[in-house]
Amino acid sequence: MNNPQPDPSLAIAGRIRIEREARGWSLGDLAEKSGVSKAMISKIERCEASPTATILGRLSGAFGLQLSVLLALAERTGQRLSRAQAQSVWIDPETGYERRVISPGNGGMLELIQVTLPAGVRVAYPASAFVFQHQQIWVLDGVLTFEEGNATHVLQAGDCLQLGPPCACAFHNEQDTPCVYAVALIRR
Question: Is the pTM of this model over 0.70?
Answer without folding.
Answer: no
